[in-house]
Amino acid sequence: MTSSRTLRRPADLVEAGLASFERLADLERVAERYAIAITPAMTALIDAADAHDPLARQFVPDPAELEVKPDEAADPIGDDMHSPVAGLVHRYPDRVLLKLVNVCAVYCRFCFRREMIGPGKPTMLSEQVLADAIAYISAHREIWEVILSGGDPLVLSPRRLAAVMKRLGAIEHVKIIRVHTRVPAVDPRRITSALVRALKASGKTTYVVLHANHSRELTPAAGAACGRIIDAGVPMLAQSVLLKGVNDDVDTLGELMRAFVECRIRPYYLHHLDRAPGTAHFRTTVAEGQDLMRALRTRFSGLCQPSYVIDTPGEGKVPIGTCVRSK
Ligand code: SF4
């Protein structure tokens, strides 16, 4: 499957052979509520002949997204209750999340921020909101780390990203800037030397955390994009989401972790899926996740062991590895 442009409408998906014409009306209903974007790199990876393709499952909309369960919530991890100023989440004492942009290169069908991102929302923080967020970080000396998230901050132009990094770089007590992104895998051409230069802030350490959920996302082009970042002195970590029908078996999960390590990326988090609206068809149980982690540990190198975590509005991120057994 090839396409030279990002697919954004259900009709684009039908035209590209990723959905049948009979499904068009159903997909239009999903598109009224949730954004769609599938980059050329991801479109090329999808096997349209496979009804269970793990890449299609992550990016091609499904009418099941309109089935909202009683325990699902628009803000499943409680960002809003920890937001002292717009665009900023201060949940843990030593770090904040700065939600710079509300757009992404791809829109994942299981996204926990799906109600806050996408077309129709402001694309980036306004200058005033950003200034207020930077002022908050400057005033709180306990903030050691700033996590740029969104949306996906690497959809910004190098010039805009560099401007934000410069402002963060001027805050003496901030030592670490962490960038959460899917771009190196889903749109590797964006990782230009200018964008890599923009990742650096004088006197600070930048980490890039790549979100990917299946080893097929780590193509040679993605590996090369990550290599450009790492070769510039920016270490990379990986985070993944445990997703039914995508990576919920030990072989697939182990291959994903190996693919990260082979790209010089250290597996960091495996997230239990948050309870965002319309995502039940992706959900495994915690017990299934713990069994997978146990199997991963017996079969794969220590380098391939992420920390299995669940996010809760009250307690934040809680490791649920294999020591606790709950059904
Ligand atoms: S890239 Fe991240 S923020 Fe964007 S849709 Fe996917 S999971 Fe959500």
Major sheet details: 9 strands, mixed
Alpha-carbon distance between the termini? 40 Å
Return the structural class: alpha/beta
Helix fraction by DSSP (H/I, runs of at least 4)? 25-40%
Bound molecules: iron/sulfur cluster
Low-confidence stretches: none
Helix and strand sequence: HHHHEEHEHEHHEHEHEHEE
Radius of gyration: 19 Å
Overall form? globular
Molecular structure report:
The protein is of the alpha/beta class. The chain contains 11 helices and 9 strands. It has helices spanning 10-15, 24-33, 40-45, 54-59, 127-139, 158-169, 183-186, 193-198, 220-231, 250-262, 286-299; strands at 88-92, 95-99, 145-149, 176-181, 205-211, 236-241, 266-271, 307-312, 316-319. Strands 1-2-3-4-5-6-7-8-9 form a 9-stranded mixed beta sheet. α10 packs across α11 (286-299). The longest helix has 14 residues, at 286-299. 43% of the residues are buried. The model has no long low-confidence stretch (mean pLDDT 94). The protein binds iron/sulfur cluster. Iron/sulfur cluster (SF4) binds next to loops. Residues 104, 107-108, 111, 113, 117, 150-152, 182, 211 line the site of iron/sulfur cluster.
